[in-house]
Design brief:
The chain contains 14 helices and 18 strands. By secondary structure, the protein is α/β, with parallel strands linked by helices. It folds into two domains: about 250 residues, Aldehyde Dehydrogenase, Chain A, domain 1; about 190 residues, Aldehyde Dehydrogenase, Chain A, domain 2, CATH 3.40.309.10. It has a seven-stranded mixed sheet, sandwiched between helices. Strands 7-6-5-8-9-17 form a six-stranded mixed sheet, with helices on both faces. Helix 8 links the parallel strand 8 and strand 9. Bound molecules: NADP nicotinamide-adenine-dinucleotide phosphate (NAP).
């Protein structure tokens, strides 16, 4: 894939970039390794100061940076601005908490292990490669980079080929904040060059956020090198509504949860599993609200739904909807790509889904919702767990026993009750099953790329 900004609202190429030569990749890896030698000797206080200063720079750039995001991947401009500000918040969060998250953990009674003192100590691993997707081109990267750098690791980014300007902005952000040159660097390379970077002895571990095939490939290469990997892959999150729920709130949140970022979020609610007692009322409100969303130019402040980020992404979405229609689904609204320039796809609601349809098990990466009618919590849980994903989930009920069952029995990395799934710096984030392994954010996220060293003193 060419490394280029192609505006999804127009389909026009705005800027192309030459990939880095092998010599340039080598230079950047050398810099990353030498920056690690410096960074691991610095204090949390020093790194925190650099991180806060980088956060200030990012915040000051909110408007031009948000415009880059919108032009590269089509997110409506208000959301793009919110993404920039969320990154600054995440950076400050780790500047404030890294030291506490990575503090020595002493054993209360070291005599039990025959020691005068025994502690578990977190130490950085070295150069970490991050392979990242375009859908939140800043936040996906920052939620890796902020904890990695605060732990004393250095980061090398291979960003998605369609967001090079975001990658280049991030390339200099941390050194502008004060981190040593090479502490965080972007490689403009294609996916075919990733394996060689993982195999490079200076690279100690890899994290990938993206699709399942990319995850399998990267994790296999890392495993062959006995290097750690963290995978944040796709999802097809259930959104369950039971009779006791506040239906108006559930409908409003359902629309938002499905269409955030033009529906291109791994943790977007994708399958709506509705109890039969409230099914008709939910469907009426949900379909109306989806149909009423304003689709258009993502640079227009009034736009709620912009284009799909790539031509191939829109084609894949169209194929999933066409397959469902051909096999007898009811398309309650939307259902066909718009004519004209840009890769727009309208908010779409599909009912009457059967196991024969691809949408039943596959991820819809765009504003397309499937709705199911169920008769009780058992059926809702079985349907929620039917596919191979396990990222997050949202359940709507005020019944305590039901809530307990959903929290315990849904196979996912998270359950949000009476609210939509959101990634917060304060909470661990990640999936199970084919949605990946390992965690980002919170204390768990910063510990992923640390050596937990046991220290025993006689
Ligand atoms: P993708 O094709 O897997 O791309 C993600 C990154 O991996 C890009 O940098 C891509 O580079 C690279 N890549 C692709 N194939 C590779 C390979 N074989 N070896 C090494 N690197 C490879 O993902 P996408 O389609 O752009 O993103 C959408 C997917 O990401 C969805 O499934 C979504 O659910 C998932 N996602 C998950 C999370 C999460 O936190 N769990 C968050 C966001 C998105 P090129 O661009 O150069 O191909």
């Amino acid at each position: 894939m060419a490394i280029a900004t192609v505006n999804p609202a127009t389909g026009e190429i705005e800027k192309t970039f030459d990939p880095h030569s092998p010599a340039e990749v080598e230079r950047r890896l050398t810099l990353a390794a030498s920056a690690f030698a410096t960074l691991k000797g610095t204090t949390f206080a020093q790194r925190g100061e650099w991180m806060r200063s980088a956060a200030d720079l990012l915040e000051a750039d909110v408007d031009p940076l948000a415009e880059i995001v919108t032009r590269e991947m089509g997110r409506p401009i208000g959301g793009a601005r919110a993404e920039v500000l969320k990154c600054a918040k995440g950076m400050r969060f780790y500047a404030d908490h890294a030291e506490e998250f990575l503090a020595d953990e002493p054993l209360d009674d070291p005599s039990k292990v025959g020691a005068s003192r025994a502690v578990a100590r977190y130490q950085p691993l070295g150069v970490i490669l991050a392979v990242m997707p375009w859908n939140y081109p800043l936040w996906q990267v920052v939620r890796f980079a902020a904890p990695a750098l605060m732990a004393g690791n250095t980061g090398v980014l291979k960003h998605a080929s369609n967001v090079p300007q975001s990658a280049l902005y991030l390339d200099t952000l941390f050194t502008r904040g004060g981190f040593p040159e090479g502490a965080f660097t972007s490689l403009l390379i294609g996916s075919a060059e990733v394996a060689a970077v993982i195999e490079d002895p200076r690279v100690r571990a890899v994290t990938l956020t993206g699709s399942e095939p990319a995850g399998r490939s990267v994790a296999s290469t890392a495993a062959a090198q006995v290097k750690k990997s963290v995978l944040e892959l796709g999802g097809s999150d259930p959104f369950i509504v039971m009779p006791s729920a506040d239906l108006d709130a559930a409908v409003t949140t359902a629309v938002n949860a499905r269409t955030v970022n033009n529906g291109q979020s791994c943790i977007a609610a994708k399958r709506f599993i509705i109890h039969e007692a409230v099914y008709d009322a939910f469907i009426a409100g949900f379909t109306d609200a989806m149909a009423g969303l304003r689709v258009g130019d993502p640079l227009d402040e009034q736009t709620q739904i912009g284009p799909i980020a790539t031509a191939s992404g829109r084609d894949e979405l169209s194929e999933l909807v066409d397959d469902a229609r051909a096999k007898g689904a009811d398309i309650l609204t939307g259902g066909s790509a718009s004519d004209g320039p840009g890769w727009f796809y309208p908010p779409t609601v599909i009912a009457g889904v059967t196991p024969a349809m691809r949408v039943h098990l596959e991820e819809t990466f765009g504003p397309v919702a499937t709705v199911y009618r169920v008769k009780d919590a058992d059926e809702a849980i079985a349907l929620a767990n039917v596919n191979d994903f396990g990222l997050s989930s949202s359940v709507w009920t005020t019944d305590a026993a039901e809530r307990e069952r959903f929290e315990n029995e849904i196979e996912a990395g998270a359950v949000f009750v009476n609210g939509m799934t959101v990634s917060y710096p304060e909470l661990p984030f990640g999936g199970i099953k084919n949605s990946g392994f390992g965690r980002e954010l919170a204390a768990a996220g910063i510990r992923e790329f640390c050596n937990l060293k046991t220290v025993w003193e006689a």
